[in-house]
Design a protein that fits this description.
By secondary structure, this protein is mainly alpha-helical. It is built from 20 helices and no strands. It has one domain: Amino acid/polyamine transporter I (Up-down Bundle), CATH 1.20.1740.10. Helix content is 79%, strand content 0%. Helix 4 runs parallel beside helix 11 and helix 4 crosses helix 18.
């Protein structure tokens, strides 16, 4: 599904043509940051706490931008994906295999959220029963892979469409919901973790924003754009990578904020506890178009982020186990596995929104798997050469990683009976 770039691809003297040649890795990864898991945590945050948890969205987006930049950077600088570097660092199978299994669990948890998002969107748009949608959704990414014909550039064009649909949809939703600017601004800059529910949501937002599979796959996608032996192309690509990361992850951050802002403006104190409630509340408040746009963006989010998850699973397995993976086979196996908990949840009448939120909390607990080696590798001059992190970059990235680990530790402490 990938194509190694050649130096001829970057032969144009035009900055914009060369940038267009590189453009794609951050685009594909950015949809992981606006997936159905984000819908779950952001809608819960806005509906429950109004605008007061917006600061978490902005903080998580800044964290994601830096950490994803470092992921792509390590792929460009070393000519290896992050999973490959982890395998080379751990060396022995008895260390590599458990690491791979943990990474696969993170990828599966990600797919569960995306799976649920697609199932719910099909139900809202076409009134397809959830249990039937569960089995129809097994085929979602196969359709996208089939239409792309196995060509990464066609896949990137498809992602441009998905991202545009989501972005335009939420510009519309913000416009019609009429948020209160004063509380919005205050919630963006005033941290508040005064209850266990707020802490749980904060960890969920970070888990939904800084995602393990996205950190793994960005390094592989960026590396595939670069002929590793050409230093001058690496230097050019690093500039393009930095610019693309700023553009796409800023966009993803604004979409996440827009979801929470819309939820705060439309659902706060209205008893909205599910995605279905959100859909049915939007119609009477702002007209049927608002509800339809909401469901369409959810479907676009589920389809696109599922594809990113498939590419991430491929990068993890190939990088850590050195085994080539058929994307189609991997997609079917992953989805069939996830039909089990999804079907059980639906038949047990569990609320999908709560499943989405808790899946993101679980993902946050998996974040040390990619983040610790990423921080270690990007500060290693022998590995990174001229692209090694500056001291300030290493310090800021270390603070972000430490903050994430501390929040996770606090959550575990409370979960086992500790008190704030």
């Amino acid at each position: 599904m990938t194509r190694q770039a050649t130096i001829q691809d970057y032969s144009s003297k035009s900055f914009f043509r060369n940038f267009a040649t590189y453009f794609g890795p951050a685009l594909i990864v950015s949809v992981a940051y606006i997936d159905p898991g984000n819908y779950g945590t952001d809608i819960t945050g806005g509906a429950t706490f109004g605008y007061t948890m917006l600061w978490v969205v902005w903080l998580a987006s800044i964290m994601a931008m830096l950490l994803q930049y470092l992921s792509g950077k390590v792929g460009i600088a070393t000519g290896h994906s992050l999973p490959e570097l982890i395998r080379l660092d751990l060396k022995k199978p008895r260390y590599v295999v458990p690491y791979w299994l943990g990474s696969e669990v993170a990828a599966a948890m990600t797919d569960l959220a995306e799976f649920l998002g697609t199932v719910i969107a099909l139900n809202l748009l076409f009134n397809i029963p959830l249990i039937i949608g569960t089995f129809l959704s097994v085929l979602d990414v196969l359709l996208i892979l089939g239409l792309s014909g196995g060509r990464i550039r066609r896949l990137e064009y498809a992602f441009m469409v998905f991202v545009s649909v989501i972005g335009i949809g939420y510009i519309y939703e913000i416009f019609i919901s009429g948020p209160s600017l004063g509380p919005l601004a205050a919630g963006s800059i005033t941290p508040n973790l005064q209850s266990i529910d707020r802490l749980l949501l904060a960890v969920g937002v970070i888990g939904a924003t800084v995602m393990p599979h996205a950190v793994f796959v960005h390094s592989a996608l960026a590396n595939d754009k670069i002929p590793a032996q050409h230093v001058e192309v690496k230097e050019m690509a690093m500039r393009f990578h930095r610019l693309e990361s700023i553009i796409m992850f800023t966009f993803a951050g604004f979409v996440n904020a827009a979801i929470m802002i819309m939820a705060a403006a439309a659902f706060h104190d209205k008893g909205v506890a599910t995605i279905e409630d959100a859909y049915r509340t939007l119609g009477p408040l702002f007209g049927p178009a608002a509800a339809t746009v909401f469901a369409v963006t959810l479907l676009a989010s589920g389809l696109s982020s599922s594809t990113t998850g498939t590419l991430a699973g491929q990068a993890i397995m190939e990088g850590m186990l050195t085994r080539k993976v058929n994307l189609w086979a991997r997609r079917i196996v992953t989805r069939l596995i996830n039909t089990i908990p999804t079907t059980i949840a639906i038949l047990s009448h569990l609320e999908p929104l709560q499943i989405l939120v808790y899946s993101q909390v679980a993902l946050s607990l998996m974040l040390p798997l990619p983040l610790l080696p990423l921080w270690k590798f990007t500060r290693d001059k022998r590995l990174m050469g001229p692209f090694v992190n500056r001291r300030i970059t290493t310090i800021v990235a270390g603070i972000f990683v430490l903050a994430i680990l501390s929040l996770n530790a606090l959550l575990l402490y409370i979960s086992f009976g500790g008190k704030l």
